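Sequence in, structure out. Go.
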Amino acid sequence: MVVPALVLAACSSPPSVTTGPLPESERQAVAPTEAPEALYPLSGTGDYDVERYDVDLTYDPATTAISAYAVMTAVAAAPLTTLTVDLGPLAVDGANVDNVPVTAVTQADGKTHLTLGAPIAPGTRFALAIAYHGVPQRRTDGTLGAPVGWISTPSGSYTRNQPDGAGTWLPSNDRPADKAATRIRVTVPDPFYGVASGALAAEDRTVPGRVSTTWDMVQPMAPSEVEVATGPLVRVDAATPGGLPMSSFVAANGTDVNGSLGLAGQVLDYYVELFGPFPFGEGGLLAGDLPAGVDVDAQGRPLLSTADLSGVLGVRQHRLLSTALAHQWFGAAVTPARWQDVWLSEGFSTYARWLWMDHAGLQRLDDAAANALARTDALRAAFGPPDRPAADAMSGPSVADGGAVALHALRQTVGDDRFFAILRSWVTEHTGGSATTDDFIDHASKVAGEDLTGLFMTWLSGTSVPEQYPAAPPA
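Output:
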């Protein structure tokens, strides 16, 4: 498909950023965001590093179509005559780079290729403005068979971007290593309400029958972590018992989820004690009118179904909330650099859940660890070790439980004090960035004061593991 280049009135004035060659002092830091991606090699590019997304999006629930324009500010890490973004298949109405119209647009395999009117040299900051519209075509996650991308429902919509769904609706560099600040403006018909990742910066009801909300996520965020949800949503402001502000949005369907909101506050306080300050200013949940089982990791506010959060609090709510909220530290704040490193999110969130369930008196940590150990060899035989999953198993139990098994072996080896010092300093030193498995092994070894490579080769990378965990060091 070729679309004639258009000068976009809506996008011709990018945000207030300085484009052009970077000063020499900044240029040294520019490098391709290249972390070789084995599981999704066609997703994203290392040719540039995104600094910021500014998106203005309108959703029509009657047609399930979106119309939007976006400005992506980035720095070139390679010579560019063609700019490729993850987007499609959606109709591109026009695009320009630094106000110079592109000369051609082609789309294939979820990619939009823009032929530039002027080349971009490495070390140059540029702003791509692009207008587009259409009905997003969701994909299917290979692990769970769940829809991925922009998902319309009878009561609204939501996004599930992990691992490669952001490009179904957002022009992006859809790889977890490329994190950027994000501002999203969502316009929907009243009584719908649009919620996106970040803090609410503005709300506009001046157009009759329409509601526009603007959301700022100033902390760097991977495209896979971006959430946009629409529907009859009601804001609920509260605070955790420890004083952390919580801003939640709940479906206005009469379902009582107050108990789960209170439980979320308790879990957040517990994790703050273990892992350090909450990374994103305010906590909260998105509780949508969605089928039971919908569970979306997203930066700032995880998305869950009111069907799973309602009623008398039980094991289900504890498991769901403790796993989803741990992701804020391990996955959102510190993001796996490649999808084969996803155990740094899934395994850590699972171990955090074990910690919470033990703390809440619902399951002993030792029992959870023993149960996972008993089945880890069979899971690894079927799906591979936690640090080398197949694309259709990256969110499965081999990664989640197997990664948690490796963490428990680490804890048994180094002791509680050094173990939690490793986790807290990992978050402190890497928040806002992305990291690999090797980065974590190096970090753990440094904090523990011993080379732990052999331990991780056995417990993380091994196709089979010992029958028992290492004996804990003397207290």
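Check: The longest strand covers residues 48-60. The chain has three domains: 45-231, 233-326, 334-459.
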